Amino acid sequence: MGVIDVLNLLVASLLLAGIYTTMSIGMTIIYGVMKIINLAHAGFMMLGAYFVYEVFNRLGVHPILGALLAFPVFFLLGMAVHWLLVRWLPVSDQPTLPSLLLLFGLWLVLQNVGYAAWGNLDRSIYTDMTLATVRLGPLTLSVVQLVVFTVAVISVVLLQFMLTRTWFGRAVRALTQNPFAGQLVGIDTARMSRLSFGLGIAFAGLAGALLASLYSFDPDFGRPFLLRSFVIIVLGGLESFTGVALGALILALVETFSVQFVPAGYQMAISFSLLVVALLVLPGGVASLIERRGRTT
Amino acid sequence: MTAAPTGTRTHPPRVTAARDLAAAAVLVAVLAVLPWTEWGNLRLLFTTLIWTTCSIAWNLVGGYAGQVSFGFAVFYGIGAYTAAVLITEAHVNPYLAFAGAALAAAAASLLVGIPTFRLRGPYFAIATIGVNEAVRVVMNNMEAVGAASGYRVNEMVGGQRAPFVMAEHYLSMVVIFAVALLVSILVARSRFGLALTAIRDDEDAAADIGINAFQHKLAAHALAAALVGAAGGAYARYAAFIDPGGVFNFNNSVSILLMPVIGGLATVWGPIIGGAVYGIVQEELVARFSQIHLGLYGTLLILAILFEPGGVVGLMRRVWRALAGRRLQGGPVPARGVKA
Fold first, then answer.
1. Nearest CA among A221, A203, A55 for reference residue A125
2. Domains of chain A, residue spans
3. What mean pLDDT do residues A197-205 have?
4. What are phi and psi of A134, to 5 degrees?
5. Domains of chain B, with CATH numbers?
6. What ipTM describes this predicted complex?
7. CB contact under 8 A, A115 and B291
8. B255: which residues sit within 8 A by CB, 6+ positions away?
9. What distance in Å separates the CA atoms of residue A139 and residue A149, rounded to the nearest whole number?
10. CB-based contact B301 A104, cutoff 8 Å
11. Which of B115, B130, B300 is nearest residue A272 as measured by Cβ atoms?
């Protein structure tokens, strides 16, 4: 493996990490504020992909523009789902099994909606961008991956900005750190849960919509990505927004480089084993490791 | 998981156990006699019994011990492959092969359980999703047993292919089901079962009174895996062809989890009701509309969580209490969302 190959793989990992961050950050928001593990995440990603597919085919909207459109649509959808189902769950400061099962049921329903509406054939979105590449010195980059990466990074940066600079963001971080103290200082938990559930679903929709430009999809589209999101948020430490980006980068690096050493068929097994290993040895995530290092020195 | 309300217990445990055992004996006797009568679609009953056995097994871990696993297809698949290989390659008697399947699945459950039971509640649940997918991917690439293209089961009797006798397949499954039912009743009314319930309700408090939660969870998991593995073995012999996309499918894990939740968690009869409904509905629905069952089960799951965490059994108890309300003194009914 030459230097160029390594460089190419590194860039590929970085591009992958961008979209992985967008995909997982929605889960972190919902987990942080509500302590709910959103198993329906995969279902909303799938709907996001089909949303772009439909606006592209019917209205001729460019897929990247479609992905941006998906964000507000899925925000409203998420709030509706929260109002209809999620708000009835018992409130808890740790994940409960009813919440897991409820959202799992929702995932099954969404998947079924997908099968009913679009059948089980693979769909894909093809534009002028799909096969275009740019050369950057010795590196060859795919245009669509670059664009997706850019959108993903911008969305995450905007989220980070909102989390640190607005009242809503401060409330989200307060509830993530200590829900009771948050309530004491007058944060409306019910409203915040609704908004953050909407935001989490909006990110799921956006990620699904962006992934639709990269991969083909069917109604079972989200499942491998759901598992990857688990790996990422567990690596990131579940509640840390910066940890998610780190986790995404680690998973992307492992996935990209493992192809060199392990037969492609086993590649998925590596990500899933990484999940179990991460849950066991790093319950606080990578971020906690760095924090601990920082504290002791 | 919110515990299913146990309701008013009007009989001491021993009486209830005797009543359950008597009901189980009648059910198994009726099932065992069916092949000699004109009633009953044996194929449908066979698959329903497979599902019901898995449902009973899952309830031991997910219901009594409260450890929700999304990975039971692993044990089903390992049981199926073990029995298939034993029958085809080693010409082992099929019934011994089922026992081998149960042992292999129990061994696998330890391999899965020892790391994952260090995690609690939902983290355990998520880890099992990872285990399920990882095992399926590995089996999809395992050339020794045909990888993704599957494995053909060849049962030889005296140098010839054994004839297919539906009644024999069915009766072997009745036996496995009976064992599962017996195990379930014994666990429900034993110290072991009480310990599992204590772990579900509050793991730290259970540890305080001297229950080794880790060991109890592992034991329940191994017991459940053995039952599921035997059922998988019976399926492999019946189907004569298995592939990783079929037996290790994540959807199997989902189905195995849905049945007891819908029927009634942590009860003896809930998983059986859930399994019977599921098996019959599944066979009838899948034949007609290929994918509609996902939405149906999703909806049932949502409704169960929101309105009746006790499942069908909880609903029946509620109706029974409403009907008998005047004659029997009602016990305290836990409010929704409150840990019973």
1. A55
2. 3-219
3. 94
4. -120, 150
5. 13-324 (1.10.3470)
6. 0.80
7. yes
8. B51, B54, B278, B282, B297
9. 16
10. yes
11. B130
